[in-house]
Structure formats: structure tokens, C-alpha cells
Amino acid sequence: xxxxxxxxxxxxxxxIQPIVMAVKLYFINAEALGSNMLSIEMDKEDGIALLxxxxxxxxxxxxxxxxxxxxxxxAKGDLGGLIIRTxxxxxxxxxxxxxxxxxxxxxxxxxxxxxALVTNAKVGDLGEKMASHFIAAKxxxxxxxxxxxxxxxxLEDD
Length: 158
Known about the structure:
Layout: H1 5-8, H2 13-33, E1 38-43, E2 48-53, H3 59-76, E3 79-85, H4 95-108, E4 112-118, H5 123-131, E5 138-142, H6 147-155
Parallel strand pairs: 2-3, 3-4, 4-5
Antiparallel strand pairs: 1-2
Helix pairs in contact: 3-4
């Protein structure tokens, strides 16, 4: 990425280079993620999936999550847990995305022992109380800063 000399005139290279690098990384990551607003991290050893939404969720986000989670369920039988971590709940991109979310829950909740909602959003308390009536897994709400506590809870024997 090249900037016109008029933009760079009088600005130190040490100031511009980190900014250019950050912009390049942003576009590389955006291109790699496509439209997905859901980061998915799998801990295959402990059977834990960490989902972190970064914007309104799309149908493609739930398809991508299933593609990563399903092979682990097939290999282990069930997942030890699912951690959903977000500073605030971003909502859904469309009604179709909401339907995909419900379908994902329907197809996966019986394969999860525990679900940790790691968020400061009010939806965390509500989710813990409401979802427990519809989902087989145990659900617990943790504050956003308590990711490690959530992992330890999932790893505890009941």
C-alpha cells in the first residue's frame, strides 16, 4: 500500500509504518474471514469450543461453527463445553440468521455438557435463566473478564 508523498510530507516514517501495517492486517483478516462475524477456537484436547461474535451474526457464521464443531463431536462423542464470549450481544444480521441460530442450537445442545456465557451484557443473566428450560446442557453466566473461570468450570467433574 503506497501513500502519495503529499500525505506523508512532514510525518515520521515510524508513525506511518505501524498504521499501514494495521490497515493491511485488517484487510487480510477481513478477507480471510469473509463475512463471518464469529471467531471459532477449538480446544480439541479438552473438547471445548470458544465462540466470540464480533458483529451481527449471519447464517454463514452458524454454518462455519458447525463445520468446526461437528468433527470434534464425532471424534469425542460430546463436547465438554461451549464458551460464548462477547462484550455485548451483537444480534443477528437477518431473520434467516436467527433461524440458523435456533437450528444450530437444536442440532448441538444435546452434545454439550456445559455452556458458559461470558459477557457483561444483560442477556447473559437472561440467557442462563431462559435457556436452561430448553437446553440439555448446564448453563452458567460469567463476567466478560472471567474467561479462565469459565474454562475451569467446564473442566470440573459434576
